[in-house]
């Protein structure tokens, strides 16, 4: 195995092992607090503050997603999770499942959409569809749709507006549920659902701004590379990318091309410094737009300069940080590797599986085309 790939795997292994140890320590702390009382264990802090401290320890809102980033990074590097660690992951995922069938980021938290999507993606990555109660998960996701076609992050979100991130996440999960044996995950003959898809597509198309990029909701949000990816991927899943106007397509291409900075890396918005994670968001968005603008990534970006920037952000001990000299983390390691996988040609010393943009999973794990009926 190339030394660079081995160092990334070592970093991911260490992070995952440390994470499980930390969870065990938090569980022990929780048990101690219940046995002797929060104020006795943490003198002077008071029961209320001690309770908040404990909540902070377990309120990691992306914990289940972090396991997905790590497992998907393994897959990109062609590495299989060892049996012991695999069992710990499966056990943790199962512990995050709520009564609704949806998943929370941590057993102490409530179910929500993004963690549920991560659980569905992990079921594909690990080849464990039995992790899910497909019909329950699908029903939970459908319950998050608003009348305008967009989606909210969790039940009881009140007057919360829809957001393109949650809308894409919902469509991504529903598409994967069908691949996991959920033939009834959506009801293809349900005319109401077809109407809902039409409303979703119209809502997404309204998220495009005059500069060509997309905001997180219509008419009020600045264009952002992450939001642009989410809107394009969602439209692709709905088969509605062709809904973009000819002028809108040209503006989109120019806006995406402008995301590459003089340093070679990508930024998320004008005037911001480059960050490794936008390697994925920008390249994946541009790849989705290729069919609309008759161009390739190499026509739009300097891919050699981009790859050099990502390699500058790789730590000697493995992993990738957001910027050169920054400490690595699983989020930027995953999205850096995922972005590199879309670059044609040499990745230096890395051999990477290619990612499927709309489902954010390695192509080899997926069955057929990715479309929402």
Automatic annotation (TrEMBL):
Q: Which GO CC terms are listed, alphabetically?
A: Rab-protein geranylgeranyltransferase complex
Give me the comment on cofactor binding. Binds 1 zinc ion per subunit.
Keywords (alphabetical) are: Metal-binding, Prenyltransferase, Repeat, Transferase, Zinc
Q: Which cofactor does it need?
A: Zn(2+)
Which reaction(s) does its UniProt entry say it catalyses?
geranylgeranyl diphosphate + L-cysteinyl-[protein] = S-geranylgeranyl-L-cysteinyl-[protein] + diphosphate
Keyword flag Hydrolase: no
Instruction: Spell out the InterPro entries in the cross-references.
Output: PGGT1B-like, Prenyltrans, Ptb1, Terpenoid_cyclase/PrenylTrfase
Q: Which residues form the Prenyltransferase alpha-alpha toroid domain?
A: 58-360
EC number of the protein: 2.5.1.60
List, alphabetically, the Gene3D superfamilies matched: 1.50.10.20
Q: Which family does it belong to?
A: Belongs to the protein prenyltransferase subunit beta family.
What the protein does comes down to: Catalyzes the transfer of a geranylgeranyl moiety from geranylgeranyl diphosphate to both cysteines of proteins with the C-terminal sequence -XXCC, -XCXC and -CCXX.
Q: Which PANTHER family match?
A: GERANYLGERANYL TRANSFERASE TYPE BETA SUBUNIT, GERANYLGERANYL TRANSFERASE TYPE-2 SUBUNIT BETA
Protein known as:
Geranylgeranyl transferase type-2 subunit beta
